[in-house]
Write a structure and sequence with these properties.
Helix content: 10-25%
Shape: globular
Largest sheet: 6 strands, antiparallel
Strand content: 35-45%
CATH architecture: Beta Barrel
Number of strands: 9
Radius of gyration: 13 Å
Order of helices and strands: EEEHEEEEEHHEH
Number of helices: 4
Length: 122
């Protein structure tokens, strides 16, 4: 259920780290199911420095507003403006709907693999 090429946080964000480019960050299928229908996203400005665990934005559904937490230390290099325009994509493709791209500078120590995250969400 959870892609093996992603790493996960206890706050239900995922991060895809790989290659030479920036890492992509989004929320998990578990998180989108808890939220329900997503209607709004507020994301940071490009260039913002983030610390692991820091709030980088908010996601709003018909049920609640939730904060989004950075899974790593880094700098925002890109924001997915298409997702801001169509936030409901998070519900249909949570692991393909990245929110921000981050140049990672640290803080990767306690990220979980898919197996550990599956155990957490049981």
């Amino acid at each position: 259920m959870y892609p093996g090429d992603l790493k996960y946080t206890k706050d239900h964000e995922w991060i895809r780290i790989g290659g030479d480019g920036p890492a992509k960050v989004g929320i998990t299928d578990y998180a989108q199911k808890q939220l329900g229908d997503v209607v709004y996203l507020e994301l940071p400005q490009v260039g913002r420095a983030l610390k692991k665990g820091e709030v980088f934005g908010t996601i709003e559904s018909v049920k609640a507003v939730s904060e989004l937490y950075s899974p790593v230390d880094g700098e925002v290099t890109e924001v997915n403006s298409a997702l801001v325009q169509s936030p409901e994509s998070v519900n249909t493709d949570p692991h393909g709907s990245w929110m921000i791209a981050v140049k990672v500078t640290g803080g990767q120590g306690d990220l979980m693999d898919a197996g550990a995250y599956t155990e957490l969400t049981k």
